[in-house]
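Supplementary material to the annual report.
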Amino acid sequence: MTRPIGRRAMLRAIGGGACLTVACSLAWPPRKASAAPGDRLNAMISVAGDGTVTVSAPPTEMGQGVHTLLVGLVAEELEIDPADARVQAAPVAPAFENRYYGTMVTGGSTSAIAWFEPFRIAGAAARHMLVAAAAERWGIDPTGCEAAAGRIRNRTSGDILPYGVLAAAASRLQPPTEVGLKPRSAWRVLGRPMRRHEGPQKLAGSAVFGIDLQVPGMLVGTIRHSPVIGGNLRSVDPGPAVRRVPSAQVVPLEDAVAVLAPSFWEASRALEALQPDWDPGPNAGLDSAAIGASLDAALGRRGALVAEHGDAAQADAEILKRLDLRFEVPLLAHAPLEPLSATVSIGPDGVDAWAPTQSQTAARDAIAARLGVPPAAVRIHTTLAGGSFGRNLQVAHMVETALTARAAGRPVKLIWSREEDLRHDFYRPPAATAITIGLDRDGRPVSWQQRLAVPDLRRAPAEIPADPPASVDPTAVEGAAPFPYDVSHHRLTWHDAGIPVPMGWWRSVGHSYNAWFVEHAFDIAARASGRDPVALRLAMLANRPRHAAVLRADRDLWPQPPAAGRFRGTALHASFGSIVAQSVEISMQGDRPVLHRATCAIDCGMALDPDATRAQMEGGMIFGLSAALYGEITVRNGRVQQQNFDQYRLLSLRDTPEIDVTIVDSDADLGGVGEAGVPPIAPALCNAILAATGRPTFRLPIHRRNG
Amino acid sequence: MQLSVNGALHEIKSSADTPLLWVLRDELGLTGTKYGCGKGICGACTVHLEGSAIPACTVAAADVQGLAIVTIEGLVPAGQIHPVQQAWLDAGVSQCGYCQPGMIMAVAALLRANPNPTDADLANNIGVQCRCGTYPRVIRALRTMVGR
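Predicted assembly:
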């Protein structure tokens, strides 16, 4: 991930009317805002005549608490109570592009990092202009004014003017060319636990998610795709659907059929009656064994060098013993609790699309291209997301909804069934690795040679992988390098694997398997040498003080040794700019681990909202535990076998351990927290099982269906 | 067909076999009750039927005629907040929030039946699935409510 290499803010105030709106564009090299003056589209903050402050949020709120954080950033500098601000989802506009990607997208745990400065700058600029407007009205110098709690106070006279009264006058002023931001020591909102902005609506059931959307005159639909992955629809007779539900409308699509009706239930019943004729395409014989064989084949190819450091010959001279280990992880589904949905209305003045999308720009462009309209004619309205974890980075379902709405000539809300959601995901790719660890006479790893087979997410799944690949897919290898431990020789190669299944970015992406590969292999090596895995890590982290501090902070959450029959495992992993150590204590009930307590230490630079950081660690660990214990998508005859939560199990409250999280404050750059909590828990758990039973885990999930 | 939802009788046009969930959502516009699995597994659609928590996705509308149905929208009168909701706010439970109406309905029903549940009671009775992993806070919020 890139880092900003310079900073320069451009501020714009948009005048006219009784509303002060402020936009800020922060980019390097400095980029002119492209919206014309007077265009409110780019407004990050608006202060209305009644004093209402509205924050336009570029990132999608999916549970990570980003709307709350944006309000906090604005409130800190604008000097308002966060509870008094409103949030609206930002439209697609240049000012709202995530600067790490150059597009409007919520991903890579970048939201807090990308928006930390722009929203504080916009808040400070708005406050500056309100102060200037008050000073002008009072005929005093701005230094005689003080902003607090949504009002300006005249320090001399004690007079008070609320922001709303000043908004119109402030909007006619030039925005400042430079603003100072509060030092961290003066923060009153940031760095403290915040109340979730949309929390009350969520608990009252009034929060609007994608599937809750209502548009006048809309039909509700549901969809079924070719049961064989990659297959297409040859034809479908609408008769059976219409006979069962007379109002049903059948819309054939390229690789799917949608059915529309006044309600989801009617649409579902009608869809069940259909007997589409599918062309299964090239994958009719695909199964999980073939996927495993593809990973093996990839490991046998040359591959591309990702990273190498140290001296192989020197390491060879030190090696007393070698360990050859092979690990493999399966396809995984995102399975957000809110099934996929989108709503599209096509009118004479353009196309409106509502969805809990993480990829607003891509959605707009894809819909525009398929409908043959200019991108500017497509308006994306982002709803709250009922989870997502990367699923809504994909936009194909929004295009399908648009095509269905066009065919129906009416607004359409398309909701996927859970079965469709699990069988037609863009899955977390499967991966395999072969690691050769050389141990010296003290049992310390001195050589780490790793071959990593993962499909390249940048190419179409059906394409044949090149050998060697022309370049390295950064998300495939993230987390396997840089190698944090001090060894004499480290070498990582990546081998593109041909897996003809739709795949995508799943919470923590490459880190989700690479942390497990490296950190479980580390414990296997440590135990093979009779070394304490945590002590050995610390001994090999002399050049990584932040890593070591996090590992110690996690260890300090366990002042007592484990009781009889209890066993612990620990893992450490850096991802998304944060460093996380996690431990879990288990006992074994036969072959099954019982989870008693888990801990987590995180260094994310500074925690802008410590409570949200803890929540993301807790949730990330549970997400990781579901995958480690149960997560597995299997394929047979080209069909995904898991159809619902009885076959794609999630961790339940009953199986959840106590979780303690500690935050290690550091002066490092801001790190992301939405994904960094996921990777270490799987190796921590497998390391605990290794401690308990002496048995390594070579394939996930721990409870495998297929032996 | 008539259904009693949140204290009011509603004339229902949906077919008798329609699951209560979709009558609530698509006919009555009560979208606080969520669809998660359609099979009674995940609990996102939990409502109260005569005071007990049930999944609304697997019960046909015809089978609950004459019985008192309460959804998240009717848990407390408008403008009020239920003690479970308050405890949830204080403990910062919700993340994406999608499962939370079902979670709150399940916990509210448990507390009505057993005002002083243990952790084990909670584990054995609250099967609502939370993909965000808010369980530790669900447990903490409930412990606070019952003074543990």
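The two ends of chain A are 38 Å apart (CA to CA).
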